[in-house]
């Protein structure tokens, strides 16, 4: 498993009975986690000192219960700064486990010895975008949600990257890739973190089992003559690391590279466990 264990401003303190208690900066949140199917005593004091608790509804969805939490606050990862705010369906605007991927591709970008163009699809609030830009890449950030792109811009500014070479695109990812192919544009690296299900800007249906492999195939047409890496992450049950490897291996068979896939996870500080948080597949040039 690839473990995001370099955080100072974030930690999973404990987890039990479908929930995890986390520290985001100086604030303690309790949120549901479907991976936590074991039940241990919630003896850690963090469970009793929470600033907010997200309660899942048996009917689907859920709602926050706030005790003492600002509307927005920031945390840092190395030289990056992220603006956080709790919003619907338990999220805060950041997936901390992705830091293990940021470190991996940041090193590749810095050591490439040439300018690197990165395409980040389903780019959300821009964690990967600002990590890549901070490492010296020029980045095209694509997400169908205008609100998420605005949030990503805030994160870039907070990280001192206001003037970095980042293109901010609000668009359906598949439609954007198709247009980029027609324009003849190319990228040295592609990052994607597709949702299990979603809708594009014009109501286009995205279902990952049906759509992700055709998109990977399309994206290979955007790769430059010397591609550096291709990274795909998944939080969808059923898309195991081996499946990510097989998709990358099949779609990129004409490119000279190596593939590794693994679960990604976060260390649990109170008991030494590692909490699984999806999977990632990495293709990198030889």
Overview of this protein structure:
By secondary structure, the chain is of the alpha/beta class. It folds into 2 domains: 8-74, Golgi alpha-mannosidase II (Immunoglobulin-like, Sandwich); 96-285, Vaccinia Virus protein VP39 (Rossmann fold, 3-Layer(aba) Sandwich). 24% of the residues lie in helices and 34% in strands. The protein contains 6 helices and 17 strands. It has helices at residues 99-110, 127-134, 146-158, 173-183, 208-220, 241-251; strands spanning 2-3, 10-16, 19-24, 27-32, 52-56, 62-66, 73-77, 80-84, 117-121, 138-143, 166-170, 189-192, 197-199, 205-207, 229-234, 257-267, 274-285. The strands form 4 sheets. The protein has an 8-stranded mixed β-sheet, with helices on both faces. A 5-stranded mixed β-sheet has the order 2-3-4-5-6, with no helix packed on it. A two-stranded antiparallel ribbon has the order 7-8. Strand 3 and strand 4 (27-32) form a beta hairpin. Helix 1 (99-110) packs parallel to helix 2 (127-134). The longest helix has 13 residues, at 146-158.
